[in-house]
Amino acid sequence: MFEFEDYYKIDMDESHKAEAYSALKEELDGGEVGYYLLPEDISLVANIESYILEKNLASDRIENVVILGIGGSSLGTKAIDRLLEYSTKRDENAIRRRNNKNLIFLENVDPNEIEESLKGVRVDNSVFIVISKSGGTIETTSSFKFLLKRFGLTFDDEVFQNSFIIITDKNSPLDQFANDFNLKVFHLPTNVGGRFSVLSAVGLLPLALVGYDIGEILAGAKELKESFFAKKEDMLIKKAYYYAINREKTPINVLFSYSSAFKFFNEWFVQLWAESLGKINRDGEHVGLTPVGLIGSIDQHSFLQLIIEGPKDKNVTMIKVKNFDNDLMIPDITLPHLEKTDFINNHTFNELINAQCDATMQSILDQDIGLDRIVIDRLTEKSVGYLILYFELLTSLTGYFLNLNTYDQPGVELGKKILQERFSK
Amino acid sequence: MFEFEDYYKIDMDESHKAEAYSALKEELDGGEVGYYLLPEDISLVANIESYILEKNLASDRIENVVILGIGGSSLGTKAIDRLLEYSTKRDENAIRRRNNKNLIFLENVDPNEIEESLKGVRVDNSVFIVISKSGGTIETTSSFKFLLKRFGLTFDDEVFQNSFIIITDKNSPLDQFANDFNLKVFHLPTNVGGRFSVLSAVGLLPLALVGYDIGEILAGAKELKESFFAKKEDMLIKKAYYYAINREKTPINVLFSYSSAFKFFNEWFVQLWAESLGKINRDGEHVGLTPVGLIGSIDQHSFLQLIIEGPKDKNVTMIKVKNFDNDLMIPDITLPHLEKTDFINNHTFNELINAQCDATMQSILDQDIGLDRIVIDRLTEKSVGYLILYFELLTSLTGYFLNLNTYDQPGVELGKKILQERFSK
Lengths: 425, 425
What we know:
homodimer; alpha/beta; Rossmann fold; 2 domains; 15% strand
């Protein structure tokens, strides 16, 4: 399913490796970090699937799945949908295919975007999922209130109660609201932070609604989880260690993904990495690694120049998808005067984009820049589940080596307080 | 139209300022840097508009404007369209409104994306614009060949000659091809690089086709150009100088734009900044500043944590749009148990997003992080033209202070060579 290549050389004591395995095992056993348990939550898959059946939400009546959520409540779902939508739509023989329901995200409070997003959305052709871990996210509650008004719904309205689903922490204010008015609730385990929540109901419910095999997504994550806790993932530990010890020399980590399908996956990674690792650590130091997400080949015409000739302050991880399952070809046509482009004729676009990935990798390695590459056989529910957990574990490990709390986000609270004060005057 | 605020303090000799004005004036007068002249090219506007009339390309028959181009040939157009589309679509009384034609970009060579992008695209309902400065960009020529095959077109075909428009350098191989087969060509001035080309035909032709007032875009740019060369833009010079002298202390420049409309503008900026300034400079040093584009409020739930608590290696520029011309409101609804979110009731989303921008700015300033802010009255053709030139001039000035050639990109050539060698074996 995967090949992992790394081209940096580091020496690492066996004892350091053992300690890293132990540290994450302690987090798992101690129960403070809940995302490790998500890949095994088969009962959640069953609950989601039976709820969809019971309420007939797979029916063609539902044209839109509208997510009210921001940050960790939306990025992971967007990422997985974009990774899988092309491939599963194209596969006529697949048991599960992405259906044609629109996934619509009310994330930002940009009024023009809200208006544009809601075109064609009605209560009778849509299901709405309100996602907020704490329950009080101002963007999400504001959009929620706006929809209530727009559709003229009251809390006791059956239409309201049947169209809105809540995902939140148990006993959060939003949970209590949902209980008062008989809304369906899926709980987020309290020990799972927003940015680590895509394999919980936060991601699985909307992904199931648009037709993906969410059991397979978990199965992929579970495969890596088991292998990791069986201490068979030394490369992952080495990579985290490499990032941590080079945090001052190379504080910028570039994820260079060769397929447009990774657009939102890159954004999900950026959130996970920036918000988990940008911290005052236990030694009182301001630490953190700046993530940058790039798409190949597009960004060969942009950011690559900075990587190659700029300061040597970056590491690069490349992602290559071997099989796009698509045989579109560059035809054997010679454009007079442009004969020098003929070298690619009679090759597939799949071959071209992969050859570009290889060539760019070579040109970066020639500059002695730290690089590793993840080669994925094909994008499937299973491989995507594996990939998600790969980056989550990498984040936990890097946070461990940086000696910080990977799972909190104290730096973003001040702005919220200032906001509230402004309106309370 | 604009307010510029800066919150960093620097001392700068008057002589340094004068030298910077002179340096850019020399570039203008010497004729090596052509983008300074674009805002005044009124004859291009007339040519584009009369060509659209002559060929009746504004008609409803044309449903799709398909751009074949990558990097500098696509990002600027995408950026401006996204900045303006909501506002000009909503304004019922505007003289010009964005029409309903789809702008479709064939950028990447991801085969699944190509297939998805071309759904519903036929020769008889579309116009195709092939954009390549050098003429030989492999992504663009490959897509071009693919379309020829897909639609069964031959070079002598009138349908082909009437549906495809070329934008390239004079005498490039693509220009020669176009001349052989009577294709309409718009030339890019040879002294205008791809990433500085959005105010040339590269951006103006597609933007005119979807209905924007391209004369106004140029007028906005011209206003700043004249003011700059009249030596009235000291703040811009101070900002570039500040970035350059702090290049080692704060090598990361964050653009934090408070509206979803800036999504592609951020990407345009990232290309402009990374590819222009990531260089081996004239003193033989690897210099460069890493750009990061963020969208507020979304990235308050992501990257902001890293800015606030991470290493002090960043400067931030915020962008705020005062008027979204949209009065969508957060209604006066109390969600039981969520009363603490009521402080925002009866305010517009426009007020909320702007208050979030203010609050985030305050929380960043509290950390003593270098920050400036651009406040735009509203997004119009004119203000967007001004903003484009603002960042282009800032790039030229920063490149001047970093003592490098802002306009070349030698670092991306090696990968192209390796790619070609792979297929020539």
